[in-house]
């Protein structure tokens, strides 16, 4: 086990599960109180196995305030449960994704052993841009949730603690993920680079607008790191034709017609409560290291379901697939390894003796 005192970071995106797609689809709202409750359950799991310090962020929506109240209440009751000390980073709040970027950088600089992330695909992408090789404990609280796990936070906290204290070796507990790298090679934004953890969509929409890709006819091309058969979101389109596992040594690249009857019709759940039909004209494997030049001369680029870049005249973009995505905790594998060696029993005995 690690000889240093482990510190765990927690990023709980206050905006996840509350975007405009609640108006355009039948997605559930993920309330502030439940996010705070999930953080509290994480604290219980982390603290039970010896994590004594947690770093997290302040926000203006109430998540941090509710967590602080729960921590104070627990302390007033005599600390019957072993919770970590919770420290709130003293950082400016913009109520934008910049808070996540700055928060993750802050945690990495302070040597956290692990970052627990509560959010959807977009939140995890924002964290992955700055987490370097600090592993992520992923928890789903967003709209499209192909990348993070839908899992009880208490259980995730136990697994995260086992990783943070070094009880389970990294080669067992952690998995490396694929990512898509998109780079502008000509035009005004030349040199600009972005990543996607699940999907890159080349949209026919000329403007970013409300960001979400909600109209199937807007989809010109898709690039996917993986396509789980039970996925929600744009990756479900790839799964409708050729499912690709996270561990597969390749991804997918697909192109689509703007209207029938050209192409093969594919039906997929592109958002909660929204079944869309697209007309596929081509589908190929995307190999690791392969560079593909995007053929779009206008439109927008959407990363993990959200449009971010408007393609301007003279701009050319290249996309590639690699294995440089974030490390993530495999909760089931970690707990199975621990159970086989009775780590939980041994750790509990050590803490209470």
From TrEMBL:
The keyword Transferase applies. It holds the Pfam family NAD_kinase. Signal peptide: none annotated. GO terms for molecular function: ATP binding; NAD binding; NAD+ kinase activity. Keywords: Kinase, Transferase. It comes from Mycetohabitans endofungorum. PANTHER family: ACETOIN CATABOLISM PROTEIN X. This is Putative polyphosphate/ATP-dependent NAD kinase. One of its GO terms (biological process) is NADP+ biosynthetic process.
């Amino acid at each position: 086990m690690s000889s240093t005192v482990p510190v765990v970071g927690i990023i709980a995106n206050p905006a996840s599960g509350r975007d405009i797609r609640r108006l355009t689809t039948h997605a559930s709202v993920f309330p502030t109180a439940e996010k705070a409750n999930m953080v509290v359950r994480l604290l219980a799991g982390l603290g039970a196995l010896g994590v004594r310090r947690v770093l997290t962020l302040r926000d203006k929506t109430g998540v941090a305030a509710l967590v602080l109240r729960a921590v104070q209440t627990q302390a007033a009751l005599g600390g019957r449960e072993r919770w970590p000390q919770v420290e709130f980073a003293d950082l400016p709040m913009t109520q934008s994704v910049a808070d996540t970027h700055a928060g993750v950088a802050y945690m990495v600089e302070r040597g956290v052993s692990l970052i627990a992330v509560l959010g959807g695909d977009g939140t995890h992408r924002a964290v992955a841009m700055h987490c370097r090789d600090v592993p992520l404990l992923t928890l789903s609280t967003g709209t499209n949730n192909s990348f993070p796990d839908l899992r009880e936070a208490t259980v995730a906290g136990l697994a995260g603690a086992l990783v943070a204290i070094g009880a389970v070796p990294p080669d067992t507990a952690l998995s490396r993920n694929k990512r898509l790298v998109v780079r502008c090679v000509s035009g005004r934004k030349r040199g600009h680079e972005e990543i996607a953890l699940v999907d890159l969509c080349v949209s026919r929409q000329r403007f970013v607008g409300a960001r979400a890709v909600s109209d199937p006819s807007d989809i010109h091309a898709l690039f996917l790191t993986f396509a789980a058969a039970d996925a929600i979101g744009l990756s479900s389109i790839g799964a409708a034709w050729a499912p690709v596992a996270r561990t597969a040594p390749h991804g997918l690249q697909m192109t689509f017609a703007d209207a029938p009857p050209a192409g093969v019709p594919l039906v997929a759940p592109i958002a909660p409560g929204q079944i869309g039909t697209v007309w596929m004209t081509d589908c190929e494997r995307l190999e690791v290291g392969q560079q593909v030049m995007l053929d779009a001369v206008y439109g927008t680029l959407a990363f993990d379901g959200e449009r971010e870049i408007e393609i301007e005249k003279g701009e050319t973009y290249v996309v590639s697939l690699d294995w440089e995505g974030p490390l993530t905790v495999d909760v089931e594998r970690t707990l199975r390894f621990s159970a086989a060696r009775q780590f939980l029993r041994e750790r509990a005995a050590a803490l209470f003796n």
